Amino acid sequence: MSTREGKAPYEDVLMFLAICVIGGAYCYYSNREIPPFMNSLDQQQASPSVATKSKPLKASDHFSDHKHHLLLAATGSVATIKIPLILHALSHHTNLSVRLILSNSARQFLQAQSAEQPSLEEISKIKNLDGIYFDEDEWAKPWVRGDSILHIELRRWVDLLVVAPLSANGLAKVSQGFSDNLVTSVIRAWDFSGLIDGARPGVKLPYDSGKSAKDLEGLPEEFRAGGRKGIIVAPAMNTAMWKHPVTEKQLAVLEDEWGVANGGWFKVLRPMEKMLACGDTGSGAMRDWKEIVRVIEQRLELGGDADDDVKKG
Ligand SMILES: *[C@@H]1O[C@H](CO)[C@@H](O)[C@H](O)[C@H]1NC(C)=O
């Protein structure tokens, strides 16, 4: 305490209070950015209702709901702000159940900071959306034998996974088999063979497993229709990132080795050319969200009114 000699004991307290007042005033008057501690408060306030809607998931509870199961995911990119538009556009389908995964960075784009970026609370009210999941939901409580594992339950539950946007980092991870968060764990655990999960009663799986009629004959009933689950990704990134030679290598894995066009389970909706959020013009922007909606509707055979809806906007 020798360095503090000569100070009155309450000086530190006064200094602390002064910092609080100045800091608080700064945050209050600078309208530009939500300080990080307020962000976490927002999340705490938003989480109870989001959580009760999301947890716990047991895929077997939804086995016979006669609905198509769409898992929508966003990994950190500005294009995450299209997620509410995609959800709204899919909300009128009567036989669709949607669950949403937001990566930690994607979540930052949906914090009620503008009209096109509603809060998660608001988003959770959109019809057909039956759950929102974050990375930490995987570890919501210390695991004991008998507990379900979220990324496996989501994999069992889903018919079609759509990652829109898939960030540059997300593309790199997926193409190399990394599984360090919830969405990449679902992708890593995928039933690419079409021989693990099978089809649910009355609901066709979106892709073909490529097995011959003879092969299918000998299989258990849920596999006999020859369906397979699928993953559609819509990459979005800065032009320079998109043009980088490593992108083509990673896309080749998804499109050539694992692509549906070659009998696989992956489909890439390549970016389009436009002015990007960072100010650069060029390719790298996520495919138009309306087109993503149309692809989902066609893939899940959600009904023929899709095109009209897109035109009506
Ligand atoms: C869901 O509804 C659409 C449109 O009515 C229909 O084409 C599709 O077969 C339905 N799917 C299931 C699983 O009932």
UniProtKB/TrEMBL annotation:
Record bears the keyword Transmembrane helix: yes
Under the cellular component aspect of Gene Ontology, which terms does the record hold? Answer: phosphopantothenoylcysteine decarboxylase complex
The Gene Ontology terms for molecular function here are:
FMN binding; phosphopantothenoylcysteine decarboxylase activity
What UniProt keywords are attached to this protein's entry? Coenzyme A biosynthesis, Membrane, Transmembrane, Transmembrane helix
Q: Which residues form the Flavoprotein domain?
A: 69-299
What superkingdom heads the lineage?
A: Eukaryota
* Single GO BP term: coenzyme A biosynthetic process
Membrane-crossing residue ranges in chain numbering? 12-31
InterPro entries from the UniProt entry: Flavin_trans-like, Flavoprotein
Pfam families linked to this entry: Flavoprotein
PANTHER family under this entry?
Answer: HOMO-OLIGOMERIC FLAVIN CONTAINING CYS DECARBOXYLASE FAMILY, PHOSPHOPANTOTHENOYLCYSTEINE DECARBOXYLASE
Q: What's this protein's family per the entry?
A: Belongs to the HFCD (homooligomeric flavin containing Cys decarboxylase) superfamily.
Q: What is this protein called?
A: Flavoprotein domain-containing protein
Please name the source species: Cladosporium halotolerans
